[in-house]
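Predict the structure of Chromosome partitioning protein.
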Amino acid sequence: MAPFDDDNDLQDGQFYDPDAEYEPDPEYAATLAPDAARQRRERVGPTGRPLPYFPIPNPLTDHGPAKIVAMCNQKGGVGKTTSTINLGAALAEYGRRVLLVDFDPQGALSVGLGVNPMELDITVYNLLMERGLAADEVLLKTAVPGMDLLPSNIDLSAAEVQLVSEVARESALQRALKPLMSDYDYIVIDCQPSLGLLTVNALTAAHSVIVPLECEFFALRGVALLTETIEKVRERLNPELELDGILATMYDSRTVHSREVLARVVEAFDDHVFHTVIGRTVRFPETTVAGEPITTYASNSVGAAAYRQLAREVLARCHAE
Ligand SMILES: Nc1ncnc2c1ncn2[C@@H]1O[C@H](COP(=O)(O)OP(=O)(O)OP(=O)(O)O)[C@@H](O)[C@H]1O
Ligand SMILES: [Mg+2]
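Done. Here is the predicted structure for Chromosome partitioning protein.
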């Protein structure tokens, strides 16, 4: 039985379980895997704008220098870690060399890639604080070919305090990543849900920011503060920093609510909103338990297709610059 009527309003006796797995709306699923013929007909994507065709990227023969992307939103639970893992894995599938940086003392990115942060003696914390420590000593290979991880654990929370008294405290991560730039095509930093010194370090190291935004009430709350912070970092610390895009996550095409939130986000941020939208599916929480990206855990799922499309969109934007 379909849980919704056409207006997606709940009827008496029905309840909405946001975590229930459902067959994706075929129309929506199609927007996640566009083909050229459809594109020519100028189809409208989930953001209400014509959906461009994002080509399959050409393989690379040389790697680096890396483009550094900070995955950032001070609101918790919006899909930063999920997007870091799966965008990274999708870029790696397209032959890009990818480094993921766990920059949250919770270590969720490390856990999501099957690493137990509590067992680590050396993490990104050591790389930040100890001069002379080589990045290779901290780097871990992941199960995804071409994708490496700089893991973190609770030790990183001390860095926030210890860095305060350092010279150039905002650029500690930038310094730590410098020797790795030539080995990778993309470095994606998973930020913690705060706008503290660690996040400022990520923004100082980055070329661009991706802001995941949950398609929920109050999604836009706090985004002004985030864009102000990005602006300040650009003025004072990192003139190269750009807002790459707003990524709508946990979108449910079958609820009026999700569609309204997305429409407001597009109204507010216009071309900064990625055409690719990540649907809500219980497959994502499952991948965390499995400790692997959705692109390998459920390779044919809509969620995997969405992050592959995001990877193509990110690469297309990069080449268009
Ligand atoms: N598209 C999605 N559909 C359903 N669940 C999702 C989706 N994306 C993420 N989730 C789930 O929502 C929860 C929060 O996601 P995630 O950890 O990626 O957010 P976060 O922004 O990194 O959180 P934090 O601010 O705590 O670091 C996780 O349980 C994750 O599995
Ligand atoms: Mg997280």
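The domain at 60-320 is CATH 3.40.50.300 (Rossmann fold).
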